Amino acid sequence: MSRLLVQGGRVIDPAVGLDGPRDVLLDGGRVVAVEESIDADGAEVFDATGKIVAPGFIDLRARLREPGLEHAETIETGTKAAAAGGFTAVCAMPHTSPCNDSPTVTRFIRGRAAENGKVRVLPVGALTHGCKGEQLAEIGSMKEAGVAAVCDGDRSLRDSGLMRRAMRYAQSFNLTVIAHCEDPYLGAGGQIADGPKASRLGLTGIPSSAETVIVAREIVLASETGARTHLTHLSTRESVEMVRRARADGIPVTADVSAHHLALTVDDVPDYDSNFKLRPPLRTAEDRDALIEGLADGTLAAVISDHAPHTGNVKMQEFEDCPFGASGLETAVSLTMQALGERVPLTRLIEIFTTGPAQALGRKSLGRLAIDGPADLTVLDLERHWTFRVEDSASKSRNSPVNGRTFTGGPAATIVAGNVVWRADA
C-alpha cells in the first residue's frame, strides 16, 4: 500500500473534539499522523482544500442481498453504492438466501467482501434460525466467524421470552442486539401510515402503536438483561420520547433513524407510488420533527441508509403487493444534510455517522481518526451541487423516492484502508 497524504482540509473528529485545519497521513492501511502540517516526501497527495475530512462514515443498516438475491444487489454493487455515498463501512443485514444464521454464511459474506467489496462489510448475524423467530441461531459460532451484531432483519420476535433469552445470549458474546420494532399483529396488512391518506387511498394503515409497543418491550428487556440494544429505523414521536427517557435512566439502549424519514413525510407520498412504500412507513410532519430533534439532542445515535434494493419488476407491482423498501446508500448523507440544515452543527452531523454508530456496535476502533487505527476517511464538500439520478446509480436497483432531487453538499471522496475508492470528480 502506498502512502497517502490528505492535505489542507478541515479535520473534524468528534471522538476527540478535534475541529481545525490538519493534514492526515495514511500508510499501510493505518493512520500514522494527524498534524497541522505534514511533509511526507514521496507520498501521494489528496488535496482536501476547502473540504471537510472526517473519520469514515458507518451505515448500520443495509441489505446487500448476497448470497441468494444477486438479481437485486451484490456485495460488489452494494459497496460501490456505499462508497459513492461516503460510507467506508456497511452493516449487512442477515436476511439473505440462505439467511446469515450460521458461521458458514458469515464466512462466505466476509470472503466475498474481501474479494469484491469497495468498502468494509460488517456482517450482521441472525438472532434466530432463518430469521423466523422460533429458535436461537448459532450466535457464538457466528461471533467467532466475524459478525458485528445480531438482528432478525425486518422482523420483530413475537415471543418476548425468546427475545429475552436472545439478549442474554448476545450479551455473553458482547454483541449488540439490533431490533426492528414492529408488532406483527398491529401492523398486519398495512401499507402506509395509518391516517387520512391511507383512508383516502383505501389502503390499510400501519398505526404508530405497531412500533411503540415493541420499542417499549425492548427497552424493558434491555433494562432487565443489561444487553446492549439498538433500536433501528424509528419513525414515531412516541418512540423518540421513550428512548430519551430510557437513556436518561441509564438503560443500555441506542437508536437510529433512516435518512428518508428525515426528509419525507406521508404527505409527500404520491398516490400508489411504490418507491415511497417503506418499512416503517413515512409518517407525519410532527413525527419527522421529533426525529430531527432526537438527533439534535443526542437521543438518537445515528442515521442509516436503510438500503433495500429491489428490481423493477418486483417493486413496480400493485402497491398492495410490492415489497417495502428503497435504495438509499448514495443519498443518505446528502439527504441528512439537507433535512437537518442548520438545526444541528456540523460536528454533530459527523458524529451521527461516526462515533454514534461505532458506539452502538461497541466498536471503539471505528468512527475515529486514531493513530494506528484504520485509514478510513470520508471527505465532504459542503458546496458540491449535484443531482441524484437512478440511471446513474452504482446499485443494481432503481427504487428510490428521491430520484431527480438536487442537493447542495455531500461526499467528495471515500477513502478505505488508505485507498481512494471513490471521488466525485473522477
Would you kindly provide a written description of the structure presented here, covering whatever features stand out?
With 426 residues, the chain is α/β, with parallel strands linked by helices. The protein has 2 domains: 4-52 and 374-423, Urease, subunit C, domain 1 (Roll), CATH 2.30.40; 56-361, TIM Barrel, CATH 3.20.20.140. The chain contains 13 helices and 18 strands. The chain has helices spanning 75-84, 103-116, 139-145, 160-172, 196-201, 209-225, 237-248, 259-263, 285-296, 312-315, 332-340, 346-351, 355-361, and strands at 4-13, 18-27, 30-35, 44-47, 52-55, 57-62, 87-92, 120-125, 149-151, 176-180, 192-193, 205-206, 229-232, 253-258, 302-304, 377-387, 406-416, 419-423. Strands 1, 2, 3, 4, 5, 16, 17 and 18 form an 8-stranded mixed β-sheet that branches. It has an 8-stranded parallel β-sheet with strand order 6-7-8-9-10-13-14-15, with helices on both faces. Helix 4 crosses helix 6 (209-225) and helix 6 packs parallel to helix 7. The protein is globular and about 65 Å long. It starts with a strand and ends with a strand. 57% of the residues are buried.
